[in-house]
């Protein structure tokens, strides 16, 4: 319809309606704008409320700020890599000096620092295989690191020809120390790292294949558990707020596992893995699984 005619028609209709309406009608008509304003206000408030609700999702409400935990974990990683470089230096000095028995004594304690923070090392590309690859994990020409030297000390029973590998191991640990200053540690890495440390023990290390020459596997087990427990301790306040029962279950499971490992402690270290009977290995594996299961629920509860 032509707008000019529409406006004219509308004006004529308004005049006729005004002329035919009583004063009561006029009063009723006069109240209509107020009612409309009230309705519009209510609609506006409802729209605003709906908009605010839409911008606050359940995930936002349940998200946990883990910045402080991440900062504390980085400090822990730096502390452990400092100790790794220092103890690896002593280990390498013993090897390069031909001190076979001394090198054997220093091997497992030095590795514990690495095993505690292994999730970080694994996030740094080739550093993990360069430091910790086992025989068969990489091409023979590329094999170096702790386990290459382990084989020389226990199976070959000699330090001959090991200087190159020893020096490269120390160099690799120093590079790791430099990189942990700036490596990105997000909440996901923190939460999954604890579970991965335990899973690695229960799925592969418990078989005894990790330290197959030295049989110092229990040192690795203990270090992995300690690394996982450190992460849990940093997340515990947030976890306790979300689920006190799960938090207590995890704490109790850590204690059971630590008590079991302590039973194999000897002279400041641990007994040879060969000492454990089959049922003891099975029990150890079961306790690892019993801890890993509730620990794996942390991520969901913390919104990671």
List the SSEs and their pairings.
Blueprint: H1 3-20, H2 23-55, H3 58-62, H4 67-96, H5 100-116, H6 118-122, H7 127-132, H8 146-155, H9 163-179, H10 187-203, H11 217-242, H12 244-262, E1 265-266, E2 269-270, H13 278-295, H14 298-301
Antiparallel strand pairs: 1-2
Helix pairs in contact: 4-5, 4-9, 4-11, 5-8, 5-11, 10-11, 10-13, 11-12, 12-13
Integer average pLDDT: 83
* Overall spatial form: globular
Q: Which secondary-structure class do the elements indicate?
A: mainly alpha
Strand line-up across the major sheet: 1-2
**Major sheet details:** 2 strands, antiparallel
H/E series: HHHHHHHHHHHHEEHH
Which value, in Å, is the CA radius of gyration?
34 Å
- Residue stretches low in confidence (pLDDT < 50, at least 5 long) are 1-61
Portion in strands = under 5%
Number of helices in the DSSP assignment:
14
Ends apart, CA distance between termini:
60 Å
The total of beta strands comes to 2
Kindly state the percentage of residues in helix.
over 70%
Pfam families: Peptidase_M75
Signal peptide: 1-28
Subcellular location: Cell envelope
Family: Belongs to the EfeM/EfeO family.
Describe the structure.
With 304 residues, this protein is an all-alpha fold. Helix content is 74%, strand content 1%. It is built from 14 helices and 2 strands. It has a two-stranded antiparallel sheet. It starts with a helix and ends with a helix.
């Amino acid at each position: 319809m032509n707008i000019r005619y529409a406006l004219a028609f509308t004006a004529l209709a308004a005049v006729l309606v005004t002329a035919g309406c009583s004063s009561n009608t006029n009063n009723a008509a006069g109240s209509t704008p107020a009612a409309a304003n009230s309705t519009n206000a209510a609609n506006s408030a409802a729209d605003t409320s709906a908009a605010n609700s839409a911008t606050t999702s359940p995930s936002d409400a349940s998200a946990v700020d883990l910045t402080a935990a991440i900062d504390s974990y980085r400090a822990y990683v730096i502390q452990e890599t400092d100790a790794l470089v220092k103890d690896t230096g002593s280990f390498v000095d013993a090897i390069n000096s031909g001190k076979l028995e001394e090198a054997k004594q220093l091997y497992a304690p030095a590795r514990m620092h690495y095993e505690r923070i292994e999730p970080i090392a694994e996030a740094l590309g080739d550093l993990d295989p360069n430091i910790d690859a086992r025989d068969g994990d990489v091409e023979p020409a590329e094999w170096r690191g702790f386990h290459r030297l382990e084989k020389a000390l226990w199976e070959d029973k000699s330090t001959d020809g090991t200087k190159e590998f020893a020096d490269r191991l120390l160099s690799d640990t120093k590079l790791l120390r430099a990189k942990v200053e700036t490596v990105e540690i997000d909440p996901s890495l923190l939460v999954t790292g604890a579970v991965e440390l335990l899973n690695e023990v229960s799925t592969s290390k418990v078989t005894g294949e990790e330290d197959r020459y030295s049989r110092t596997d229990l040192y690795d087990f203990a270090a992995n558990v300690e690394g996982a427990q450190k992460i849990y301790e940093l997340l515990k306040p947030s976890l306790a707020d979300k689920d006190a029962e799960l938090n207590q279950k995890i704490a109790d499971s850590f204690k059971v596992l630590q008590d079991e490992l302590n039973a194999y402690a000897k002279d400041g270290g641990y007994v040879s893995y060969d000492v454990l009977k089959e049922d003891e290995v099975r029990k150890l594996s079961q306790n690892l699984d019993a801890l890993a299961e509730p620990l794996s629920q942390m991520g969901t509860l913390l919104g990671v």
